[in-house]
Amino acid sequence: MKKAFKNYLKLGVLLFGISLTLVNCQYDDELDVNTKVIVQDSKYTIKTIDRVEINKNKRIVNQLKDVGLNSNPKQNGTSNKVIFNQELNIEINDSYAEYIESIDGEYHSYTFSVIDYNDPDIIKNLVLSLQDDGSYLELLLRYDLTRQELQDYNLYGNTDIERDVTYTVLDKGTFANTIFSKIDGSTANDPTDDCVTYGTSGGSNCSGGGHSWAQRNDCKIYLDLEEGTDPIAPITTVTVDVNCGGGGNDTSPTDTTGDTNPNDTGGSSFPDNNDTVVTKPFCGQTCINELEEIDDEPCEKIKNGTNNAIYKQKFKDLNKNEKFNLEHESGFYMQNIGGQNQYIDGVSNGNTELKIPAGSLNATHVHNNHPKVSPDGTPYDSAIKILSPGDIGNLITKIKNANGPTPENGFVIMISNESIFAISLLETFAQTAEFQNKWRTFQKVYKEKARGFIEDFTTANSRKDALEKMFLFELKKLGLENTIGLFEGTVENETDPNINNYEINWTRKTLKKVFLGYTVKETPCN
Amino acid sequence: MQLNNKLTMKNILILCCLFITISMSSQVTQTVPLHSTNYSNGVYFKDLNNELSFLVGTWEGELNNKKYTFEFTLFAQVLRSYENDMYDYRDDLMGKFKVVDLTTNQVLYNNLNSTNYEQYKISELYIRQQKEIDFLFQDSENNCLNSAEFKLLKDDSNPNQIIYKDFEFNGFGIFYNDTYGCPNYQNQSDIPMFLPSQNLILTRL
């Protein structure tokens, strides 16, 4: 009996130990992506694999390590989550990869997403492509396409994006040493050369044709699918002939087979490994999430709402030191009175905040300075110069209601001596019973964070950056990250007496998950 | 006897599994000072420098013929759960208070009988130079989540005294029938507020 008890105890301790190991990895954001997408056509199997899967191929691991170790002695952390080259300001995300394997198992490639922080809007991929000798060809691909276009290609197989793909073949194992000269594409192919082939196969079509993937909900009958079943995305591949057009450094000069097209049905079923790289545009999980969030329409709404001369004049009148130095907020709101939209100057709510009455379609106000003195006698400004929880409350209730069927037209703008910010509704908001409790916590946490930032960050810019990140993060914690859009405003031609030349420019701010936390992405509202 | 032992073993095993499950679901991933800038999930904002404990206890002061009694309690490692499976922990210094009219001896306000974290209406926000603590007061839904802030300043010359100062109204309004506002009161200044609006000295009891 004693023995049995001991065994159970051992088992318990063992399970506890295992649990601790699991817990240590539980919040490792990069490890929670499992192999998740598997598609297959007659030639290739394509799947997104995570690092556990990648690590099974030691050769790949070593090749990636070379990139990290040689290029960045201050590699972040010890977990080798991201291969970060500090000098070039690029990251190669080795947390997951797009793995493409030929059906016969003779060929495969790994595609990793690369973020170039000097040019974050450009999609870059590092492709490690199997060669006949078992080594991997390193190819750096640059897609001069918007993320939306790439997503369209990956999801719908739109092939009208076949343009402006440049690639650079890197010397095997010397990526780190040669990247300086090659990252800018100076040795890349001429994009007009016919070296890159896009392939699309499989997927589902609506009966009658003319239906896109995006229109799948309008399509009642799908070919090859049961009624009511969603169509499946086509299989999309990009094939690069590395010996074509003189692009890149030919690493396999002896090869002359020249079979480049994976969809080519003649001759060999599969491309020649040494000449051809099969990949798929891959911008990683972060990119996909980001695509879902970015939408141009909110930009248009804010721009349209703030670019008329009457609005601009009222905005200009608020954007002054004399307003910032008042002891209370000042501002105006727009209401529809007698069928006409009118701007009305606001009054205090009985204390220092501006009262936004029901029926307001939008509101613009100043967060006035709030001078204080710290215990050691240092003066500081305790005003929080970003939109407050109260501003959010007004947007998602009064202003939303006033805008009726078009709540997205509503916005609240805050002007201060350090920053201009706006929020607008991206989608309609419906309260739930638990929202009040969440709101109470949100208010408290918002103030905890903001109070620290306004004193710990000593410059207006650093304060602004910290506050906008905090604001977006707290919105996410409140579950409103996709409901409320944040914009930063800047003013052009501020002193021009002609109000038509006074320009308010907006930049959309979104929270972006990066490999070691979050960053704020800026998207100008052009 | 053997059956009983088997059952006991089973229970131990179940308890082990339960413990493992609980320990995995809301694990502290990192411990950082109270006012750190940290966006990691599961982070614990801990009073590492023991800055909050000096306020724990009961403090009393008089102003305009009213007696104010404040009680502060330190709730260690309070779990705060958010949307998107996000959570953190924090050492929270929470307060409650009572106001008595000294002329009539009438209790004007009293929430000293609160015991749960959620019932406390005063919470610490920020510690400035290890001397001055900002507090947030959040009223109930009946009072439209009326909120205000004040500071407590340590008196270096007397550890049994603190200065209550800089009372200011904050935002107010609740979500009520899809509106954000206050159905019972037109203006914030109409909502009953029992915190002292002027500075006063509080003495430790």
Chart the SSEs and their pairings.
The complex is a heterodimer of chains A (526) and B (205).
Chain A: H1 2-26, E1 38-40, E2 44-50, H2 51-54, H3 58-71, E3 82-85, E4 90-102, E5 108-116, E6 123-130, E7 136-143, H4 147-156, E8 165-170, H5 175-182, E9 196-201, E10 235-241, E11 276-279, H6 284-293, H7 297-306, H8 309-318, H9 321-324, E12 331-337, E13 340-345, E14 360-366, E15 371-373, E16 379-381, H10 389-402, E17 411-415, E18 420-425, H11 435-456, H12 460-478, E19 484-492, E20 503-514, E21 517-524
Parallel strand pairs in A: 14-17
Antiparallel strand pairs in A: 1-2, 2-4, 3-4, 4-5, 5-6, 6-7, 7-8, 9-10, 10-11, 12-13, 12-14, 15-16, 17-18, 18-19, 19-20, 20-21
Chain B: H1 2-25, E1 30-33, E2 43-46, E3 57-63, E4 66-81, E5 87-101, E6 106-110, E7 122-128, E8 132-138, E9 147-154, E10 161-169, E11 174-176, E12 179-181, E13 200-204
Parallel strand pairs in B: 1-2, 2-5
Antiparallel strand pairs in B: 3-4, 3-13, 4-5, 5-6, 5-7, 7-8, 8-9, 9-10, 10-13, 11-12
Structural overview:
The complex is a heterodimer of chains A (526) and B (205). Chain A is α+β, with helices and mostly antiparallel strands and 526 residues long. Chain A folds into three domains: 1-27; 33-197 and 236-293, no CATH class; 297-524, no CATH class. Chain A is 29% helix and 27% strand. Chain A has twelve helices and 21 strands. Chain A has helices at residues 2-26, 51-54, 58-71, 147-156, 175-182, 284-293, 297-306, 309-318, 321-324, 389-402, 435-456, 460-478, and strands spanning 38-40, 44-50, 82-85, 90-102, 108-116, 123-130, 136-143, 165-170, 196-201, 235-241, 276-279, 331-337, 340-345, 360-366, 371-373, 379-381, 411-415, 420-425, 484-492, 503-514, 517-524. In chain A, the strands form four sheets. In chain A, strands 1, 2, 3, 4, 5, 6, 7 and 8 form an eight-stranded antiparallel beta sheet that branches. In chain A, strand 3 (82-85) and strand 4 form a beta hairpin. The relative contact order of chain A is 0.08. Residues 20-41, 68-81, 173-189, 205-230, 246-269 and 288-294 of chain A have low confidence and may be disordered. Chain B is globular. Chain B is mainly β. Chain B contains one helix and 13 strands. Chain B has an eight-stranded antiparallel beta barrel. Chain B has one helix at 2-25; strands at residues 30-33, 43-46, 57-63, 66-81, 87-101, 106-110, 122-128, 132-138, 147-154, 161-169, 174-176, 179-181, 200-204. Chain B has one domain. In chain B, strand 3 (57-63) and strand 4 form a beta hairpin. At the A-B interface, helix 1, helix 10, helix 11 and helix 12 of A face helix 1, strand 7, strand 8, strand 9 and strand 10 of B.
